[in-house]
Amino acid sequence: MKNKSIVAAVIAALTLSSCGSSLAPVRKDALKPAVVTQALPHDTDDPAIWINPTDATKSIVIGTDKDTDGGLYAFDLHGKIIKKSIVLQRPNNVDIAYGLMINGKKVDVAVTTERENNKIRVFGLPDLEPIDNGGIPVFEGETMRDPMGIALYTRPSDQKIFAVVGRKEGLSGSYLWQYELTDSGNGKVDGTVVRKFGNYSGKKEIEAIAVDNELGTIIYCDEQFGIRKYVADPAAKNDNELALFGQKDFKADHEGIAIYKKTATEGYILVSNQQANTFMVYPREGVNGNPNEYPLLAEIPTSTIECDGADVTSVNLGGVFQNGLFVAMSNGMTFHYYSWDSIQQLIDAAKK
Fold first, then answer.
1. What is the CATH number of the domain that holds 346?
2. 306 near 348, Cβ under 8 Å?
3. For the CA atoms of the chain, what is the radius of gyration?
4. How many CB atoms are closer than 10 A to CB 235?
5. What predicted TM-score, i.e. pTM, was given to this entire model?
6. Which residues form the BPP domain (predicted)?
7. Domain around 15
8. Closest-CA residue to 235 (of 311, 289, 160)
9. Which secondary structure element, helix H or strand E, spans residue 271, and what is its range?
10. Closest of 228, 215, 121, 130 to residue 175, by C-alpha
11. What's the total number of domains in the chain?
């Protein structure tokens, strides 16, 4: 995408979001994106990055377009739309996992919540074709369903994949449901609920969820309250809350979560401070030898407006993304791509 297109998209996003909005404006020191994607028809909400196993420079970003006739969209690293999924009824969040066994073959998948149908939907990658027999019902038997957030956990011991699903409303202690994704026997994906857990303050909702496969943890935002942490493996039978942090750092809503992995165990947790148009940064590994202690390291002002969702990778994707790509949703129906180097510089400056 040429620079003029990037500037025009940013201006459009700022203009759309400022109309009648009481949100904080983009700060003058806001981090500038390397790329702004083509705009979607309705309402962007959440992105996920798929790493091409044979050529990382051909990796793609999958993003949701949240509307009754929405869908999943695939973007290249220049922000160009290269594929759209079948029509989905209000897809909310999306996550990606690698190597789900189907018909004896490993298939990379993107899984999204389809809110108006009370299902999760599974798509093969990179072709973005559905492989779920029309979807997997979630929160069955509940009066409060409306699935929103999703994150995928791949268990290191056996490579089984589990979906952690959040919703618009739920009860504390069983707000999140976890499903094992399996081959249904006909080349399609099925899901079985294996766990119900998750404390909830009752203040707003739980939407943003992230899983750290290497550390075996789930982190999610209890909006307007804090960020909670749990064990990811359902076989551990440990539903105790491990940590609660970020309670005093946010203007209002705790939103999208992205985990940057510098090594197998070290890195950063970035969480959208939605109404401030910034991202709060915490140490992935904790501090002082305590993996459940999360002091605020930095606040990064970005060009995004009211960001709902984000993702990040440390994989070398080439060009300006040699140390990784951070992607975040913005009002104006776009996603903004940032070079990780520009974020790392701000984190380093905040530490001084």
1. 2.120.10.30
2. no
3. 19
4. 13
5. 0.92
6. 16-347
7. 3-351
8. 160
9. strand 267-273
10. 228
11. 1
